[in-house]
Design a protein that fits this description.
heterodimer; A: Rossmann fold; Alpha-Beta Plaits; six-stranded mixed beta sheet; 35% helix; B: mainly alpha; 12 helices; elongated
């Protein structure tokens, strides 16, 4: 449905998007993940035909976003970073206006406006002036605006910004409900959002794609290994010796825990190895009291940080001491 | 065409739902009302004096009060328009750029020309609505003069007002599309209006420069209309400026895609 080939966009001598290539299948939800300023918004603006690309091509439903801009614009719904609202209009008149400029046929217009308000949970706000709405509701009006003409492709730039937790859940449900019949690209810098809503993730940093995969695969592949956290009461040097002798243990780090004589140790093992039972046996075998033993999985968050932080010193802040 | 109408309707809605249009129209009407009564009293007094003088000299004065009054009044309306049009156009694009709604318009299946023309026609309609009540003043004069003043002065005068207004709206839209800041665009439009107005005063004399400046002076071309003379020079002059303004606005809107708007 969407094909992006070697897309580059520069502003003057600053390259915002640097030779990116990806595609989105029909009915799929693609998450665009990246820190602020990574090039997410720029990519979306190129896809919507708002900005021309410097190099490369982007196609939506087989139409080039630059050469067949009108065809593309007919097929997309777009929620920019700041919802494009006219504050002195009511919710329903605003949506009616958007339906008009999106070429919704007259006979379907009223029905589409109703449907969009229903889906975005705005039925009760229909006659309110947009400027009187709270931020969360403004965001919903923005969302309703993107779906009012029932487009094939929906592009959402940070759709859950400014919403409260309950609204975030509602919006995620809405987005999931739209998938299947619609192809969706959404950008975010909130990680749980990606694992919860998206079928596939594109991680982008400094204008370059650093990873494309399903959220599960990303977690699996990039997980460097298992990490185990141990809290025990033992002399530091001896504890280190014992832990290092365990087969499979790769890195051992030990810190004293505040004023008590307990030690916090972190052991890293290669992928797929679970050393917890061995560690427990060794420590207890030495007669040291064991207070805590916990496996730590690398979360999507760690992976994201690994991929988007270049300076190795900052890679894992908790280990850099 | 439907896109153009949608934009036009939205703009009219914006003008008339907010107090903007009402306040501008009220102040405009109040001002033109003051000019109306002042000029009427002055012209009548002058005519009376002239008549008295004429009687003393033994020859009756030939002074057409309604025509002279209408010329002065419609001429002044033109100058007032010069100061009011910046208020109508300073927000048309600045506001959209600031609010991010330009992004909605430019990613919708409507052409840039539809956006530009829809907005221009809406601001022109507002101008017409604003000027319309002054027609009652003129009807009043018409009803109370004997013989009635020539139609040509009224028709020419209003045609001139509309052409002058359309020109300033077109140029104002262009300046508004250049910035996100309403105040900046408002001041730029006002500056341009004043410049075009003052050009006539600066260009007294017979040097080549003065004469060419005279061609650009707005009032030079506006005044014949008020005299009831509809000449092609004036029509072409205003037509060119209106076209130039719309053309530049269109180019500026197109270029928003290439800048980081």
């Amino acid at each position: 449905m969407i094909e992006v080939q070697d897309l580059t966009k520069s502003y003057g001598d600053k390259t915002a998007v640097d030779h990116i290539t990806f595609s989105v299948n029909k009915g799929e939800i693609l998450g665009f993940l990246g820190p602020n300023g990574a090039g997410k918004t720029t990519t979306m603006r190129v896809l919507t035909g708002y900005l021309p690309a410097t190099q490369g091509t982007a196609k939506v439903a087989g139409f080039d976003v630059f050469n067949d801009s009108m065809e593309v614009r007919r097929r997309i719904g777009y929620l920019p970073e700041t919802p494009p609202l006219y504050f002195d209009m009511t919710v329903s008149s605003y949506l009616d206006f958007v339906a008009r400029i999106k070429n919704v046929p007259v006979e379907k217009r009223a029905q589409r406006v109703e449907a969009a308000m229903e889906m975005a949970g705005l039925a009760e706000q229909r006659d309110q002036l947009i400027k009187r709405l709270s931020r969360g509701f403004k965001q919903r009006v923005g969302l309703a605006q993107a779906i009012v003409h029932d487009p094939d492709v929906i592009i959402l730039d940070e759709p859950t910004v400014g919403l409260d937790p309950k609204q975030i859940i509602e919006v995620r449900h809405l987005i999931k409900g739209l998938a299947g019949s619609h192809t969706i690209i959404l950008s975010t810098h909130i990680l749980p959002e990606v694992s919860m809503t998206c079928d596939r993730v594109v991680i982008i940093n400094h204008g370059k794609i650093v990873a494309v995969d399903t959220p599960e695969n990303l977690t699996l592949q990039l997980k460097g290994g298992e990490r185990i956290r141990i809290v025990a009461q033992a002399p530091e040097q001896q504890l280190r010796d014992v832990l290092q002798k365990i087969p499979g243990a790769q890195r051992v780090q030990i810190e004293s825990m505040g004023s008590s004589d307990r030690m916090v140790a972190t052991v890293e093992a290669s992928q797929g190895q679970d050393l917890r039972s061995q560690i427990a046996a060794k420590i207890v075998g030495q007669g040291w009291p064991l207070y805590e033993l916990r496996g730590q999985n690398l979360s999507l968050e760690d992976i994201f940080l690994q991929l988007t932080t270049e300076d190795p010193a900052h890679k894992r802040p908790e280990e850099s001491k | 065409m439907r896109g153009l109408y949608a934009i036009y309707k939205k703009e009219m809605n914006h003008y008339f739902v907010s107090p903007v249009a009402y306040i501008i129209a009220c102040v405009f009407l109040a001002l033109s009302g003051v000019f109306f009564s002042n000029y009427l009293v002055e012209v009548t007094n002058y005519a009376n004096r002239l008549m008295l003088q004429g009687m003393q000299m033994g020859q009756p004065a030939n002074f057409d009060v309604p025509s002279v009054f209408l010329r002065i009044f419609l001429g002044t309306i033109g100058i007032v328009i010069l100061f009011f049009t910046p208020l109508l156009t300073m927000g048309v694009y600045s506001e959209e750029r600031k609010r991010g709604t330009m992004e909605l318009l430019m990613t919708s299946p409507i052409t840039d020309a539809q956006i530009v023309l829809g907005k221009f026609l809406a601001s022109f309609s507002l101008l017409v609505v604003m000027i319309l009540p002054t027609v009652f003043y003129v009807i009043y004069i018409f009803a109370h003069s004997d013989p009635a003043p020539p139609w040509r002065i009224i028709a020419g005068g209003y045609l001139g007002v509309l052409l002058l207004g359309a020109m300033l709206l077109a140029l104002g839209s262009f300046l508004s599309s250049l910035t996100e800041n309403q105040i900046v665009s408002g001041v730029m439009i006002l500056g341009l209006s004043l410049l075009l107005w003052l050009l006539g005063a600066f260009s007294q004399g017979t040097s080549a420069l003065a004469q060419s400046l005279q061609y650009a002076a707005v009032l030079e071309h506006y005044n014949p209309f008020v005299q009831g003379i509809i000449d092609t020079t004036g029509l072409v002059f205003f037509g060119c400026w209106i076209f130039l303004g719309i053309f530049l606005t269109l180019r500026s809107v197109e270029s928003m895609r290439w800048r980081r708007a």
